[in-house]
Design a protein that fits this description.
The protein is α/β, with parallel strands linked by helices. It contains three helices and seven strands.
Length: 165
């Protein structure tokens, strides 16, 4: 990775998910590729949860923030942002730092490695207890569910796991 790519990565750390402002697009695993050609940068992102009803809004917000952040860099005059669906984004792309940020925000992160169809184990993001119950598979967004912790008595959200089949 060259110096210019490192600078692009650094400014992209400021761009957060519009629905989860606690996590940036790097830690969320949305960044797929950076290509620099002189003063032009092309960034490829993987959208999370392709069936999300807010996908168009997220795309618009994130694209604008990415363009604004990258074109602030010295020597960059143009930034193109593309969304691709292949390879598909999965929750195992979320970094350890991203998982910690989600927990601090009160959202239980999905398991680091999840096999489609396997039971989903969700620990409480507040106290770490494994004694949780699913209150509603449908949370405030399509990508989250609502759970309840039997130990600390807090309701919380959990990000649903998405794995490659």
């Amino acid at each position: 990775m060259n110096e210019q790519e490192r600078k692009v990565l650094k400014v992209l750390e400021r761009v957060t998910d519009p629905e989860l402002p606690c996590i940036n697009i790097i830690d969320l695993g949305m960044l797929h590729a950076i290509e620099i050609d002189g003063s032009r940068v092309e960034i490829t992102l993987l959208p999370t949860f392709s069936g999300c009803p807010a996908l168009d809004i997220i795309k618009n917000d994130v694209v604008k923030e990415v363009r604004d952040a990258v074109t602030e860099l010295e020597g960059i005059v143009e930034a193109e942002v593309r969304f691709e669906f292949d390879p598909p984004w999965t929750t195992d792309r979320i970094t350890e730092q991203g998982r910690e940020n989600l927990k601090e925000f009160g959202v239980s992160p999905p398991p680091a490695q999840h096999i489609e169809g396997e039971p989903w184990k969700v620990d409480c993001p507040y106290c770490g207890s494994p004694y949780t119950t699913m209150e509603n598979i449908f949370g405030p967004t399509a990508c989250r569910s609502i759970l309840y912790c039997s130990q600390c008595k807090n309701p919380f959200e959990a990000m649903k796991p998405v794995a490659n089949m």
